[in-house]
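Weekly sync notes, structure subgroup
Attendees: PM, AL, DS (notes)

Item 1: joint prediction request from the bench team. They want all two components modeled as one assembly rather than separately. Inputs as received:
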Amino acid sequence: MIKIALLGYGTIGSGVAEVLDINHDSIAKKAGEEIAVKYILDLRDFPGDKNENKIVHDYEIIVNDPEISVVVEAMGGVEPAYTFVKRALLAGKHVATSNKALVAKHGPKLLQIARERQINFLFEASVGGGIPIIRPLISCLTADVVEEITGILNGTTNYMMTKMSEEGSEFADVLKDAQQKGYAEADPTADVEGHDACRKIAILTSLVAGSQVDFEDIHCEGITKISAADIKYAKAMGKNIKLLASSRMVDGGYSAIVAPFLLDDAHPLYNVHDVFNAVFVHGNVLGDAMFYGSGAGKLPTASAVVADIVDIVKHIDKNIVIFWDEKKLTLKDYKDVAYKFFVRAAADKDAIEAAFGTVSYVEVPEIAGETAFVTEPMSGKVYEEAAAKVSGMINMIRVD
Amino acid sequence: MIKIALLGYGTIGSGVAEVLDINHDSIAKKAGEEIAVKYILDLRDFPGDKNENKIVHDYEIIVNDPEISVVVEAMGGVEPAYTFVKRALLAGKHVATSNKALVAKHGPKLLQIARERQINFLFEASVGGGIPIIRPLISCLTADVVEEITGILNGTTNYMMTKMSEEGSEFADVLKDAQQKGYAEADPTADVEGHDACRKIAILTSLVAGSQVDFEDIHCEGITKISAADIKYAKAMGKNIKLLASSRMVDGGYSAIVAPFLLDDAHPLYNVHDVFNAVFVHGNVLGDAMFYGSGAGKLPTASAVVADIVDIVKHIDKNIVIFWDEKKLTLKDYKDVAYKFFVRAAADKDAIEAAFGTVSYVEVPEIAGETAFVTEPMSGKVYEEAAAKVSGMINMIRVD
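Output from the run, pasted for the record:
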């Protein structure tokens, strides 16, 4: 019998308790041991809840109980999560977490402590919710040098882009709809400005590169500038607009970006709609692969956390090696990566071609007073020089 | 330094040597040890090949060399692969294989020997080529009861269905094209009759159920009856026809089938084209997930084999537990599963409705002399009773 403690009894923490309950027998069989929740740390009480007698308010009870071999952190945020997780590891307790902020900021330090003690720090649920992506990267794609990893990593914005595409509506309207449905928060900044996706691609890039990528170093554009007119042009080109978080190998290093992209229907991420997430990987020998599923939600995320717990129980005396040095990786300049650029400008074709050279024009009958076009592939630097020469620029979206 | 032997220097065996060479340093880092090929067993010699001095013709050299800790089986077929693999395991050598016929037939026996000796028998490449699916099933979806696993598991037939859909051509023509491109063999039976996909879904179902599923027990229909007319109807309905290999949980057991299915564009497998493979999984807590990638090909398949080798090196003293008993699982009758059925019959609407009840008709202007329709969901048994009442049945395709 493995006894565990949950830190936090919110959506994910209670989901973990629920999954351990629903699939109790099959989980025990796969782990080789029964798994029981002994404590749940939360500031609140939960009178009437089936786990109400497991609630504790003092972390010392958990960290000092030698019966607890696994701590599940589902509090979110960097502190006090970091202090609690670090103390658990130092006390020889394995940790599973769903906390992307914690992992993005302190992942390598916590992995190092786990490695030194031959225990485990796992975080499958921190990226892509229920989609298995961290473990496949660590244990399945080991024969490859990953040359690109690109994800739709935020369900809220993907829902919004899907709605805008289906209904032709404006950003402000779909945001209101997403807030009403509970998909977007009252302050939607972290989602719509791409900050959430940015932390996730920082984690994935760190794992791919084996060194710390600070999310603050990643160029990040959200979806707030995407309008119904952009969607109309996308449709005219047979493309979808998706908020991508992407890292590519450039000159032996990695360049990372979070931004809206135009994808055509041959791209594996083209058809990832609503709140679903997906991660596309290109390996130098594997070629293209994609992992798709529920990127958020109580039970899918808890499913990933519980899979970590099972893996911990199967490796109770062995550290699962995860390469992620504390040494900071300096990213290559995202402006050195070449894309085609879709551009809308209140300018005439002569001015556009003088600045951008050969372009392909896109026309939408009901939009007048502007010229829309797609450039040839060029680096971000070359694009910016060209764009500076054209007055009346309206919007730009990269084409993948 | 880990020394390995390759059994077979054909497409996959030589691919394994190539991947170990191309990504030598990154693989050594991830495995924690350098990996070197010491022997390659093949009947042929390879004069001028960079590995020509590693070729041996006698298996005894390999099985009796204590320096060899990992044997990679890439010969294909059940014998002599089974004898060689079994002897390697009995001699305490780990084994990785890409051989679906071997795994489908003798998987549980070989896993048992590996378990008893605390070594490993891994077979990621036996299903879905380079797509990580076996390891995710074993180590990522452990929190879930898998209620459905459905794959596009044969690249040849998926290429053919894609071509038929794109070009409106007939089965015989695309088969010829696939043979010319080297995607289909001179005798295409194993692909087009679904036998290849059948072995793969037998392996996946065995892993999901934890017991031996014999592929001979799985109802298997190929794509040979699919015509250009069927594709026209599919397009009229906004659907694609795909050869699916699928297992579903029914009454606490599993029912399995290989057959062409009509998928609409909301299905994650709808957009899997050409030689790509994908596996869709529905877990009771995870919900929907999908794994997509190159289902065949030298380097993608070798990538999966090498990932197994790396996992073996990381678990050199520890058996990775894979639940798959020799005890045979009796499958539920596939005719008990309910689908909608798309039907073409040279019959009038009165006769059709008398037999099938309410149906939705599908019309394609250029096809005359027949009636096409989609039934309400019904079990295969109910469908067969209804179909027996209608004379002039032309074709039936299930709708997923």
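Discussion: The radius of gyration of chain A is 23 Å.
Action: AL to compare against the crosslinking data before next sync.
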